[in-house]
Write a structure and sequence with these properties.
Blueprint: H1 2-9, H2 13-19, H3 30-43, H4 47-60, H5 65-77, H6 81-94, H7 99-111, H8 115-128, H9 133-145, H10 149-162, H11 167-179, H12 183-194, H13 198-216
Amino acid sequence: MEKARESYNKGNFKETIRLLKDFEKNGLDRYESLMLLGHSYFYMHKGKEAVRSFSEALSASPESKEAALFLGKSYNMIGKRNDAIEAFRDALKIDPEYKDALINLGVTLAELANQDEAEGVFKQITEKFPDEKRGWYNLGLVNFHKKNYSDSEGCFKRAIELDPEFTEAQYNLAAVYCVTGNDALFSEYVEKIKGKNARLAKMLVGACNKERKKLKR
């Protein structure tokens, strides 16, 4: 097991999988072996194999919130959003305060266009973890999609307060200013983004021009 751990910590996932191939025959700990296998497959973007490993790990240790979380992430990797939601909810049954499970649950709900339920999850995150930038950022995205631009602006601003270099939040705050016609603040944030990523700033201006043409129709 020690060799497998060392291999995994070095990022040598193929070797980790090789070493753990016959873990049961070799008398290695079932849960730890399956978790190492699951993580190795996950980081190699082999979603189906990761799902199998994390599912078996959860069966071996039903109280493992980490196994449930990564089972959900692995389901997302292969496009099985509803199964992912169920796994994230299982993780939250184990630990209702599990921040990563809450964030992944909210993001997956939003991806399924279930904006109202996603909003409820992200509000829960901002209440429980007010210094978690991802909660505010994703709540901002939900409000943006619902065209609640004032609320969206406040959320993105809070995310940027928590991380002044949060480029994604700056980009989406600029998008708010684009659709609300605040040219001065839009230009200000374009310049901020341009200083870090000129290509992204150009994409932002292009997207804004396209959106404004649609609004004029």
